[in-house]
Known about the structure:
By secondary structure, the protein is of the alpha+beta class.
Amino acid sequence: MRAMSVISAIVLLLGANAFVANADDTSGANPAIELTIDATKPGPAINPFIYGQFIEHLGRCIYGGIWAEMVEDRKFYFPVTDKYNPYGDSKITIPVVSASPWEVMGPAGSVVMVKKNAFVGEHSPQIAPGSGIRQNDLAVVAGKEYGGYVWLRAAKGKASVRVSVILEDGKDSKQVANTIIDDKEYIRFPFKFVAARPTENARLQIDISDAPCLVGAVSLMPSDNVRGFRADTLALLKQLHGTIYRWPGGNFVSGYNWRDGIGPRDKRPPRRNPAWTGVEHNDVGIDEFIDLCHEIDAEPEIAVNTGFGDDYSAAQEVEYLNGSADTIGGGWRVKNGHAKPYGVKYWCVGNEMWGDFQLGHMRLDQYTLKHNRVAAAMRKVDPSLVLVGSGDLGTKGRLGDGPDAHDVSWSQGMLERCGDRMNMISEHFYRGQLPWTKDGKMPIEEHVGQLREEIRKKAAAHRKLQAKVGRTPEKFIPIAMDEWNYWHRDYVYGELGCDYNLADALGVAAGLHEYFRNSDIIGMANYAQTVNVIGCIKTTKTAAFLDTTALPLLLYRREFGSVPLAVMGNSEERKLDLAAAKMADGSAITIGVVNPEAKPQALRLAVNGAKVGTNAKVWRITAENAEAINTPEKQAVAITDARDVKVDGAVSVPAYSVNVFRVAVEK
Ligand code: AHR
């Protein structure tokens, strides 16, 4: 599928249907590049799962991004103390909570953490009468309604409780509600308010009088949340239209107990995030993930824990998702209100188990045994599962002992020893500019080619490796590139929340082109990640927007064909990246053009083997310069509306641009 030389192109142009698009602005462009799309030999269909996404319990991806909860540490993982220092010395723009975000309002010692009658987790705060606790730094939008609740129980006798929202510095205090609570059991006390004006410094305060009172858990969400998901983020996820979502990690999964994330939400224990900073609130677990996938029309893909986890737990997780009510796991699902099995088909057996940073990392030969045990146990519950094994071409591992011992790549070991117990093999990669700061410069075209280069190398290496381990092309185990992206620069949107620019968007489009060119061996690709954390959607506390890298994902998913066609010509000399594909029903041919150059370029296209019309539609992603970024205030990089192009001249593509053309095929 690689571009051929100019000489071949000239030969192929004979008998081709010349399709030339007229100029919009070719000023400053070089002479038109001659290209031929060969519609006579389509490549293997592009798997729709190359348009997948990855979300992980890390930074502000789930909490602070997708989930609508506004209160930090709502279940009191951290003890509430007289020393209020929630962010420690974190330098991240949106800092991670590393100590209790609850401030004591009262004399020293008026809040103690008690284990007896704790509502959830290890302990609950008990507040002395005449004192209170408050959470600062809540952001609200004027005129918007918010709803919340507090679980309360008097420690002795009857306590009076006042819940207030204070918009700024004690001024404009809004008392939300009062109640009287006794000591028999925890009571859920709901409240609502409409923000009179916008602020990032609203406070939620709980004051106690008459008797000491326990606070079990607190929640506050905008009332427009959709079963707990942020309405603004959901709307963008729908636009992004990822076909499959991989969850819950990532490194996170290797320390995750999925049972912590099921059952009544307020009663699920908060834990320290096992792989990253901050707290895992366990508000989003399996049932919420499935709900999210249904809401955004995506296929769920669940990673099981093969780090600190075991075969028993993985099999029981499959039962929870797919088993009947008479299995242990299936019974729990039914009890939690989901009578019908979810039927989740796609599963990752572990994450990056080749890395010595991974919780539960072990020797390759031991891990292959573990993979096989886990996979067998999962398939015993549901033989129809599609399993992705954890590979890595770049890491060596040891197979065998004594004189037989030899080192092979982790992927080779997995293919040799686990080939029958997996349907796809995972490879991950991240590229970026070093140093990972705004000042790390690299020629734009080189930067744009980084993702493409990785994909090309991995696909070629797998073809070679799979042949070496005795697999014919028909029996290749497809690659699931289930983490791929740029990862660089400063973190602006919380942990790993780097922002992206137009050059990154061009690189993502070129990466997609490379997936199309390797459709014989790429079975899945999950852009990593989705919200805030190296994410293509960014959020503030009150708004969400598409970052630059979301745009090619969205555009190709929406408009591009699914049957790849070879493109031949001299585009490489001009650094252009071109890909073509016809629609599954054969009605149109689409052409993607990435121009990483500072100059516009002119193209002259011909189609061999199909008669195309004389009008094309074009969508573009571009901006004034390659370093243009999107911010909450201004989205400098966007997709243009579809524009009609008359095909009677050379078609131009602007400097630093992604262009998708679509032309109808005539019958
Ligand atoms: O996506 C961030 C991290 O990168 C993932 O947790 C891990 O799988 C990879 O190393």
